[in-house]
């Protein structure tokens, strides 16, 4: 466990409002750009967390698991078609996924940048990222 870590997720959102009424050709358009810094998952056994730290680690791991489940439910096959049997997208399983629901589904464009370790000793954890 990183002793300097804040043990929380951070979300910074910029809301965009483009008023096209001057030209009259298009209605007002809205958008949002969100930058997220998600807390890293913790291997509770190896971090030796106790008390509040253990509770925080569990909460973080649950929210990251819920995010993974949402991404899995939204995943499309290699041809760009959603699976025939559309799964329920579990947005309500965590506060994080509730906040991100409109950024992940519909016509949203989403990009993920992951921080992974190049060390072989962290290979398994990096693959889970």
From TrEMBL:
GO terms for biological process: microtubule-based movement; mitotic spindle organization; spindle elongation. Belongs to the TRAFAC class myosin-kinesin ATPase superfamily. Kinesin family. It holds the Pfam family Kinesin. One of its GO terms (cellular component) is microtubule associated complex. It comes from the Eukaryota. Residues 1-129 form the Kinesin motor domain. This is Kinesin motor domain-containing protein. It comes from Haptolina ericina. SMART domains: KISc (SM00129). One of its GO terms (molecular function) is microtubule motor activity.
């Amino acid at each position: 466990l990183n002793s300097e870590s804040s043990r929380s997720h951070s979300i910074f959102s910029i809301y965009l409002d483009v008023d096209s009424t001057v030209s009259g050709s298009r209605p007002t358009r809205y958008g949002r750009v969100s930058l997220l810094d998600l807390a890293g998952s913790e291997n509770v056994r190896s971090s030796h967390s106790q008390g509040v730290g253990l509770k925080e680690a569990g909460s973080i791991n649950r929210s990251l698991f819920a995010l993974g489940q949402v991404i899995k439910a939204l995943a499309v096959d290699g041809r760009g078609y959603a699976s025939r049997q559309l799964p329920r997208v579990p947005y309500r399983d965590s506060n994080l996924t509730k906040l991100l629901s409109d950024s992940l589904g519909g016509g949203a464009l989403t990009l993920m940048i992951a921080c992974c370790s190049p060390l072989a000793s962290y290979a398994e954890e990096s693959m889970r990222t």
